[in-house]
Amino acid sequence: MEIASGPSSRRHSGRLPHIHKVERPPKQNLLRDIQDSLKETFFSDEPLRPYKDQPGPRKFLLFLQHFFPILEWGRTYNLSKFKGDLIAGLTIASLCVPQDIAYAKLANLEPQYGLYSSFVPPLIYAFMGSSRDIAIGPVAVVSLLLGTLLQNEIPDSQANKLAYRRLAFTATFFAGITQFALGFFRLGFLIDFLSHAAIVGFMAGAAVTIALQQLKGLLGIKNFTKKTDIVSVMRSVWSAAHHGWNWQTMVIGLSFLAFLLFTKYIGKKNKKFFWVAAIAPLSSVVIATFFVGITHAEKQGVSIVRHIDRGINPSSFHEIHWTGEFLLKGLRIGVVAGMVALTEAVAIGRTFAAMKDYQLDGNKEMVALGSMNIVGSMTSCYVATGSFSRSAVNFMAGCKTAVSNIVMSCVVLLTLVLITPLFKYTPNAVLASIIIAAVVGLVDIGAVILLWKIDKFDFVACMGAFFGVIFKSVEIGLLIAVAISFAKILLQVTRPRTALLGKLPGTNVYRNVEQYSNATTVPGILIIRVDSAIYFSNSNYIKERILRWLGNEEEEAKKLNQSGIQFIVIEMSPVTDIDTSGIHSFEELHKTLQNRELQLVLANPAPIVIEKLYESKFVNLIGEDNIFLSVADAVTTLTPKTQEPA
Amino acid sequence: MEIASGPSSRRHSGRLPHIHKVERPPKQNLLRDIQDSLKETFFSDEPLRPYKDQPGPRKFLLFLQHFFPILEWGRTYNLSKFKGDLIAGLTIASLCVPQDIAYAKLANLEPQYGLYSSFVPPLIYAFMGSSRDIAIGPVAVVSLLLGTLLQNEIPDSQANKLAYRRLAFTATFFAGITQFALGFFRLGFLIDFLSHAAIVGFMAGAAVTIALQQLKGLLGIKNFTKKTDIVSVMRSVWSAAHHGWNWQTMVIGLSFLAFLLFTKYIGKKNKKFFWVAAIAPLSSVVIATFFVGITHAEKQGVSIVRHIDRGINPSSFHEIHWTGEFLLKGLRIGVVAGMVALTEAVAIGRTFAAMKDYQLDGNKEMVALGSMNIVGSMTSCYVATGSFSRSAVNFMAGCKTAVSNIVMSCVVLLTLVLITPLFKYTPNAVLASIIIAAVVGLVDIGAVILLWKIDKFDFVACMGAFFGVIFKSVEIGLLIAVAISFAKILLQVTRPRTALLGKLPGTNVYRNVEQYSNATTVPGILIIRVDSAIYFSNSNYIKERILRWLGNEEEEAKKLNQSGIQFIVIEMSPVTDIDTSGIHSFEELHKTLQNRELQLVLANPAPIVIEKLYESKFVNLIGEDNIFLSVADAVTTLTPKTQEPA
């Protein structure tokens, strides 16, 4: 309710209160105007602000700190923080080693490439990244996406190992370039175009697809489809049912799956026991490997890892395609994989930053992620990003800074140098069960229910992405997700809401009559609120919608034998901008109303709108007197005219 | 200014006024909800409204009238209306005959096809269309576009006349299908996505391109480039300068061009003489033809029309490609040409409808235009649509109904049957000068200046389309126009405006402090208005922008030694909708503010927003007490707390 003490007396004395006119904002020159709008688009976070009024050397230090945040937080680093980081780092290392080996298989790469990708990228990130909680490394969804896209180009990854790997590094390089460029050119806002709803659906679909792929390892099937859609996979599974399933493999796989899901459940039930879930995968690998090693179950058809290259990352600089058609293919795959990886990492970073209340600079973050993948592509790593599950464990284990990533990286280094031969007897079934247990968390039923409750359109987008992924492929799902996200934006700007306003009794506040049942319309005056910027995409609709409101109300008035409408007041508060098409429509509306002897009145136009209305001479057309500061103001001024006989 | 009489006393008595709570709108069931939103998207004009409460036979009549508006207005047609239509029809006929012959050349078709397209389509339109002023027939821009697109597929239109023509009819058929389908499925709003600014630029670019093409005919150049970009054309013209220009042709062309431009100027200067400009083209043709006929200037190298088939439209049903790859090519070309033709026709229709104050049903109009092109494609016509210049002449000549199109159609019929042989000696130079004089009007300098003044982004879109057309090709220009239009929409939803609000002295109205210089902020309370629906594309930006406002204000407060901010009031009036991402961001914002011991307060959320805030339990999170009906309400309630020591 808006109330005033002063002017109420003035109105009753018969004087029409016009203390405040709608002001035109101070005129800015063009250059300033363009500058401001560019700044708000690309530099909305004012990155140069800390540099202001600083001496030269200090500026250089700030500049270095901008790209290497470790220089900033490193100076206040102490032993107590290190304790937290050490424990968190060891915990996520125990989680990441088995996951790395498993995820590399999702990307159709040999297991050591997963480990490589958990060694170099986290190190780079620790120096350049600004998130304190994110855990870097290969993740399930990106591995699957990369594997699918690469396989489209090189169908037989086993027969063409080198060619496949080279394309993978090329794609990783361009994924890094994409991420770096988006951050460097401050285009980070582009990833906001993938809506939350679409991501939820895409992730769930990817999780189901990944889990289905694991049926191969879990059931010990030899001839498995290369396709990822649910129909092909289930057909593969059934056709192998009679002789293709290996019961020893199934026993191993299903029992460890049950164990992992159980520990996950315990960890979820009681947050104190999160470490049980965290070390379960490594324990499973150790137990299963030991078991297979002594029973030699591999001779019964249980498929095992067999071999992981020992030693740290070899250089892969010369394996990247710097020319030729594979450069372009790598570029295309890299852009897609890079964007998806970025979306995941930024979402994780933001979530944890909000939890601990620190600011995360999205563009800086992208530069860090891009750099780590560029370096990674030259050191035999494939696309790494922030992992949902490992970041959550990192957070719960009490990490303080990115040092936990360094600790994890060191453990992976030791693993690579010392113990890779021990993974020889690790059964693939246990890796499959680790993957399934990991991706279960990506299906967020709660979020889907919330989408359904809050926004049906979001729900449709979510389901579209989900079914696109499981029935077709990850790319199609992604495409559907992006398309639906865009459709939503377009629909929003094409069919904006309008509302009929009425006066709340005892106040001078005008509100939507559909929301406030006791709001009453003013006889002779039609008050309509337009709830959107008026642009070419909706200007015509808005014009016709206003005329439709008018038609309805005139019909209503005729039925009730009331006097007809004489004024149309457009409440412009929500109209944040108007373009030439919008002004055109207003001119047409004014002409139409004039023909019917109705007056168009505007209330509370925004600064930019009033400026444009003046520039286009529309103000002269309807008369400056017909623009009011508020609806209340307009109604008090207009009412007398309708009551007088004139 | 919003003022109240009643409650002001209540406030001073110390009671916090809470007469009106923010109400949740009455709950609608899901089906109803979806129905409403579908209805608003596709049936916003309530097409079924007139059918309500009507008896059966009347319903059928209304249904017929819906598709054939002539049944409605025909019943009140009388002689005085016919007089107007007759004069207007004869005037536009005199204008269209020479234009038809000239435009057919733009589309690389033989001259009679231009005349055919001015015979059948206007007849069909007269029965089905609802615009009273539009003049139907071939137009310059669509002819050029069609010519370019067809030539991309069949480069040598002279050597492959039949193949070229068949593809032209196929494209025309699909242009009609596209138009019909858009109207029938009520997707007409899709053409609104081509912004006014983009159309202005595209039209101007097309006009320049068309004029440049006419240099061939005007200068009598034999070897002319097939490309349409300005660089190729000018190179063609210069390289032909020494021996390729024909002076006799130039004399004819330039003198008639001067004559036509002069009459055009007279017609514009004094509206009474519009008919001078209208009959000038036909007079030019008659004079030039007569002159060439007696001097036999064609023997001096003056190129002439030579031959136009006599007789009415032959059937072309069997020339349309119903199968094969040309079907797909025709489909692609048809969709583009159909959309551009539609945009032009609908823009014309709307302009004149607003002038004479009648409603134009966009979807019905599209069905009419589509039908006429479908029938046209089977009767040797190429894509016809509404012509800007001829419709204006039609309007000024006093047309009353679509009967003027029937009159024009009859004149074209007589031309086809009787006098086509007389066009034998018509020099191409005079046709070129007619085209140039016609397209000059498409360059709307005034509109461009207005764009520059009102909206810089629109100006850039306009220039992009313009330069795209003249330096590259019509398709590229069109693509740029569409791309920039979309970019504008996306930018609008990614970077919405926010404003800091202050109180206008002597009122309880809160307005943007940048617009109203005397608005003052309230100490301890930060009031921010968010000027857009909060969607995934901007939710993160809005959150960060609010935190930035907070940072700035806290700095300011520290400098002035004021007490810090305790409340953040978000004025939600312009926030017309919120989605799950938006609620997410609000939750994060709330968490961040909570960490800093600040309270988040919302003012005046819209019905749909409050509903979603309840559904998502966000209301519970910040407390129902922190949602107010208006900013004024919030400030009066919150202020006491900040003053008390607690």
TrEMBL record, chains A, B:
Gene3D superfamilies per record: STAS domain (3.30.750.24)
Residue stretches spanning the membrane: 124-146, 167-187, 193-212, 245-267, 273-294, 333-354, 366-385, 406-423, 429-452, 459-487
PANTHER family: SULFATE TRANSPORTER (PTHR11814)
The family this protein is said to belong to: Belongs to the SLC26A/SulP transporter (TC 2.A.53) family.
Entry's localization field: Membrane
InterPro entries: S04_transporter_CS, SLC26A/SulP_dom, SLC26A/SulP_fam, STAS_dom, STAS_dom_sf
PROSITE patterns: SLC26A, STAS
Molecular function GO labels: secondary active sulfate transmembrane transporter activity
Membrane topology category: Multi-pass membrane protein
Identification of the protein by name: STAS domain-containing protein
Domain STAS: 515-638
Region (Disordered): 1-22
